[in-house]
Design a protein that fits this description.
- This is GNAT family N-acetyltransferase.
- InterPro entries: Acyl_CoA_acyltransferase, FemAB-like.
- It comes from Nitrosomonas cryotolerans ATCC 49181.
- The protein has 383 residues and is an alpha+beta fold.
- The protein has two domains: 198 residues, Gcn5-related N-acetyltransferase (GNAT) (Aminopeptidase, 3-Layer(aba) Sandwich), CATH 3.40.630; 144 residues, Gcn5-related N-acetyltransferase (GNAT) (Aminopeptidase), CATH 3.40.630.
- 38% of the residues lie in helices and 23% in strands.
- The protein has an eleven-stranded mixed sheet. A four-stranded antiparallel sheet has the order 1-3-4-7, sandwiched between helices.
- The longest helix is centred in the last third of the chain and has 30 residues.
- It is globular and about 65 Å long.
Length: 383
């Protein structure tokens, strides 16, 4: 097999159509060329922000047959897999943890990362060659380690077989179990929880006039600017620790990526089309992903309505099977029917000492997380 490997410091140097032929069969919008390229062209992803693009492409003659979105990282922010303690151990041993090589869709804590392989190719064999190239590159460039975060479950099995070490996390997923309407969804809860949810929704009466759900392709262009303002306001409430995206990124979503976007808008006045709050979701096939939300003013229980109940109601009406509402708030989500699902990240350390420490501890770490998953789901099922 005669293969050529190329490393790219910008996604724009890889032909969009060739990349899309690899990415689109997987149906994971966060590896779409347009999404990843917008992160770069907007300035959110760059060496200045600590995310240096280092994408790998694989060619047979002049045909792109595989690719991997990868980044040189100089910190661990925006990953939502918290490895700062690993970095501290490395530093205590006198070894630099940064830079490291990272595979993920930046700032996106949802499961589905993988190498992109042409469907006519042998995926396992190509992944083996790509991993060897990554190992060589990391050692030549003095990168401490490589990490693939929140990976596609089927692809994870391949990579585990190839020697990558799995680290267990969880995602909180709501599943549509054939509900006909929102009341069907409520029927799975006990009486107390049904009453609590209905009470939360009633408390919004009089605070907002109505809720509107609009696809990105049909939304007013101004809503993309509003979405940035609301997102920035939410980040500001939490000391800007997750303020990774800028206005240019949200404005750019109104182009080719609008086809993936669903807005949930709260409108305060029947005579006004301007939202007082927005949440932004990504829809691909039977999957819905909650991404960003915010409002300028406080409304009781608005977060639950605009980020959970309205999307669930819309998901039921539009035959969405799974809804990943994003990271965090496990207790809050489990009480609304979201179950913790196992998610793996994959890791390899090139310093022998760090590799030994990791291998000696990762099974115990995973056992603790498995117990955490069981506790979350026990709480959710106590409905």
């Amino acid at each position: 097999m005669t293969l050529a490997f190329q490393w790219h410091t910008a996604l724009k140097t890889i032909n969009r159509e060739a990349w899309q032929r690899l990415a689109q069969p997987y149906g994971f919008p966060f590896l779409d060329w347009d999404w990843l390229n917008l992160l770069e062209t907007s300035g959110c992803v760059s060496s200045k922000t600590g995310w240096m693009p280092l994408h790998l492409s694989v060619w047979r003659k002049d045909h792109l047959i595989a690719a991997a979105p990868l980044y040189g990282k100089f910190h661990s922010r925006g990953e939502f897999v918290f490895d700062q303690q690993i970095a501290e151990v490395s530093e205590q041993l006198g070894m630099s943890y940064y830079p490291k090589l990272l595979g993920m869709s930046p700032f996106t804590p949802v499961s589905g990362y993988r190498f992109l392989v042409h469907p006519d190719e042998d995926e396992f064999i190509l992944c083996q060659h790509m991993l060897r190239e990554i190992d060589t590159f990391c050692r030549q460039k003095n990168l401490s380690s490589c990490h693939f975060l929140r990976t596609d479950p089927n692809w994870s099995q391949h990579m585990h077989t190839l020697g990558m070490s799995p680290w267990l996390h969880h995602a909180l997923i709501w599943e549509n179990r054939g509900y006909d309407n929102f009341e069907d969804y409520l029927d799975v809860f006990n009486s107390k929880r049904r009453k609590n949810i209905r009470r939360e929704r009633r408390k919004l009466d009089g605070q907002t006039s109505r809720f509107v759900i609009v696809s990105g392709s049909e939304a007013p262009e101004a809503w993309f600017n509003y979405m940035y303002d609301f997102y920035a306001a939410t980040c500001n409430k939490f000391s800007n620790w997750s303020h990774y995206l800028n206005r240019r990124f949200f404005q750019g979503l109104s182009g080719n990526l609008a086809r993936y976007i669903v807005f949930v808008a709260a409108v305060e006045d029947d005579n006004s089309a301007d939202p007082v709050a927005l949440s932004m979701l990504i829809r691909q096939g039977e999957q819905l992903y909650g991404r960003y939300w915010g409002s300028m003013d406080h409304f009781d229980h608005l977060h639950s309505e605009i980020c959970y109940y309205q999307p669930i109601q819309w998901a039921i009406a539009n035959n969405i099977r799974f809804f990943d509402a994003g990271s965090g708030n496990a207790e809050h989500k489990s009480r609304r029917g979201f179950l913790a699902q196992p998610v793996y990240s994959l890791h390899r350390f090139y310093e022998p000492a760090m590799s030994r420490i990791w291998q000696a501890n990762v099974n115990h770490i995973n056992q603790i997380e498995q117990k955490h998953i069981e506790i979350i789901n026990a709480s959710s099922r106590a409905i």
